[in-house]
């Protein structure tokens, strides 16, 4: 092998890693689509696409908040418990009216976000520790408020869970609107630029006079609110409040969607388009395994493998 060829190897590897991180999630979605088109019965039916879109909507909404947290060089492990808390509050306050119940559920998510953001910004607790504590506490509070599954018999919730506009479910429209809103905030607002600067280097952001504490609190409030919205939509889809199981392992799915979408765990960058594709990838992967009679545990193993590959690609690029 010539010297020129030897010198080109690292450059070729760097190019491959860049392509894997930037576009690997889209390739993964395309591969899964082709596999299902070839091997899964009725995959191309309108009803199947509707089902997949409705199921991915809560995951995507939670992943949007997780992307903000990871972009600030943090993480939010409390999102699943916030969903459980939201469904408990929603069920308890439905008697006061649908919008009051939804507002209380969302405020509950915001309160958890304020608690997590304050621990991180003012007390200096590591994000993984602060949100882990809230993950445990949030699920416990949700179970205290609503110890067992409860059917939700409300016409407004039923319409939210199964209604549509021109065949597009409300859940999908809400998820798409929130994705566009978060993308606009990250790319076009001062808050978005401050978030990325803090994720890139918090000490430098402080020296530059950025409101680091305020931005961090807002980031975790956004994550909590989005998780609460996902909890409300999941409750509407299931027609029941179940704080025992709702949101279980949602943090894993959200982190997977964000990381495989190209947002590095080291912070400083948020890819909303990649996060959307990552959520779709996770849903397609889960649906593929289920439709081919593989146990649910294989889904978790597959997600772990995907995360390892995505983190490896980002780590190798970071060395160069």
UniProtKB/TrEMBL annotation:
<feature type="transmembrane region" description="Helical">
    <location>
        <begin position="296"/>
        <end position="314"/>
    </location>
</feature>
<feature type="transmembrane region" description="Helical">
    <location>
        <begin position="52"/>
        <end position="70"/>
    </location>
</feature>
<dbReference type="Pfam" id="PF02653">
    <property type="entry name" value="BPD_transp_2"/>
</dbReference>
<keyword id="KW-1133">Transmembrane helix</keyword>
<feature type="transmembrane region" description="Helical">
    <location>
        <begin position="215"/>
        <end position="234"/>
    </location>
</feature>
<feature type="transmembrane region" description="Helical">
    <location>
        <begin position="166"/>
        <end position="186"/>
    </location>
</feature>
<dbReference type="GO" id="GO:0005886">
    <property type="term" value="C:plasma membrane"/>
</dbReference>
<feature type="transmembrane region" description="Helical">
    <location>
        <begin position="100"/>
        <end position="121"/>
    </location>
</feature>
<feature type="transmembrane region" description="Helical">
    <location>
        <begin position="128"/>
        <end position="146"/>
    </location>
</feature>
<keyword id="KW-0472">Membrane</keyword>
<feature type="transmembrane region" description="Helical">
    <location>
        <begin position="23"/>
        <end position="40"/>
    </location>
</feature>
<keyword id="KW-1003">Cell membrane</keyword>
<dbReference type="GO" id="GO:0022857">
    <property type="term" value="F:transmembrane transporter activity"/>
</dbReference>
<keyword id="KW-0812">Transmembrane</keyword>
<protein>
    <submittedName>
        <fullName>ATPase</fullName>
    </submittedName>
</protein>
<dbReference type="InterPro" id="IPR001851">
    <property type="entry name" value="ABC_transp_permease"/>
</dbReference>
């Amino acid at each position: 092998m010539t010297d020129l060829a030897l010198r080109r190897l690292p450059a070729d590897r760097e190019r491959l890693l860049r392509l894997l991180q930037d576009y690997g999630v889209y390739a993964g979605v395309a591969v899964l689509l082709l596999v299902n088109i070839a091997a899964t019965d009725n995959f191309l039916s309108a009803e199947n696409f509707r089902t997949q879109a409705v199921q991915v909507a809560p995951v995507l909404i939670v992943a949007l908040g997780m992307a903000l947290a990871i972009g600030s060089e943090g993480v939010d492990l409390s999102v699943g418990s916030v969903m459980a808390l939201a469904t408990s509050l929603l069920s308890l306050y439905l008697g006061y009216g649908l919008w009051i119940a939804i507002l209380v559920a969302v405020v509950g998510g915001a309160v958890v976000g304020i608690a997590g953001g304050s621990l991180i910004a003012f007390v200096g607790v590591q994000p993984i520790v602060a949100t882990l504590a809230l993950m445990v506490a949030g699920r416990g509070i949700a179970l205290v408020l609503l110890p067992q599954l409860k059917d939700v018999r409300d016409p407004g919730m039923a319409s939210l869970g199964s209604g549509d506009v021109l065949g597009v479910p409300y859940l999908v429209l809400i998820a798409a609107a929130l994705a566009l809103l978060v993308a606009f905030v990250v790319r076009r607002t001062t808050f978005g630029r401050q978030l990325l600067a803090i994720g890139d280097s918090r000490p430098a952001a402080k020296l530059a006079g950025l409101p680091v504490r305020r931005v961090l609190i807002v980031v975790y409030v956004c994550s909590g609110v989005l998780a609460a919205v996902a909890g409300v939509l999941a409750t509407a889809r299931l027609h029941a409040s179940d704080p025992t199981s709702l949101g279980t392992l949602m943090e894993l799915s959200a982190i997977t969607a964000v990381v495989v979408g190209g947002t590095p765990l080291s912070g400083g960058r948020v890819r909303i388009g990649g996060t959307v594709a990552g959520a779709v990838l996770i849903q397609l992967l889960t649906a593929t395994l289920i439709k081919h009679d593989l146990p649910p545990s294989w889904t978790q193993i597959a997600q772990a493998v995907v995360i390892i590959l995505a983190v490896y690609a980002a780590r190798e690029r970071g060395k160069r």
